[in-house]
Amino acid sequence: MELLALAYLKSGDLDKACREFEKIASLTSGRTYYGDIYARSFYMLGKIHEQKGERAAAVEYYEKFLAIWKDADPDLPEPADAKTRLARLKARP
């Protein structure tokens, strides 16, 4: 599912990418076996909503991602990027 969502994103189809990432975020069993993909889906949803100009939704998804990811792999690029994007979105009036 993640590969399909990323393919849609790369092709520029934000709506289809969003739907696929939302499916990943709604999975219950995936949280156990694919926690990284589950958590990263919120990061990707934040990026998609940011691209679509939907600031409130982007903020919500970045916050959810960071809450889930808080104790995991701080050296990966996604947490730092999410923090930067979140700060920038919150700083805008």
Q: Could you give a quick summary of the protein structure above?
A:
It is built from six helices and no strands. With 93 residues, the chain is mostly helical.
Structural account:
The chain has 93 residues and is mainly alpha-helical. It has one domain (2-91): Tetratricopeptide repeat domain (Serine Threonine Protein Phosphatase 5, Tetratricopeptide repeat, Alpha Horseshoe), CATH 1.25.40.10. Helices cover 80% and strands 0% of the residues. It has 6 helices and no strands. The chain is globular and about 35 Å long. The termini are far apart. The relative contact order is 0.13. The model has no long low-confidence stretch (mean pLDDT 91).
Write the H/E string, N to C: HHHHHH
Q: Per CATH, what is the topology?
A: Serine Threonine Protein Phosphatase 5, Tetratricopeptide repeat
| CATH homologous superfamily (4th level) name | Tetratricopeptide repeat domain
Report how far apart the termini are: 36 Å
Q: Helix share of residues?
A: over 70%
For the record, the CATH class is Mainly Alpha
β-strand amount: under 5%
User: Oligomeric state of the chains?
Assistant: single chain
Give the number of domains.
1
Give unreliable regions as ranges: none
Query: What can be said about the biggest beta sheet?
Result: none
* Structural Rg: 13 Å
Instruction: Please state the overall shape, judged from the principal axes of the Cα atoms.
Output: globular
What structural class do you assign from the helix and strand content? Answer: mainly alpha
Total E-strand runs: 0
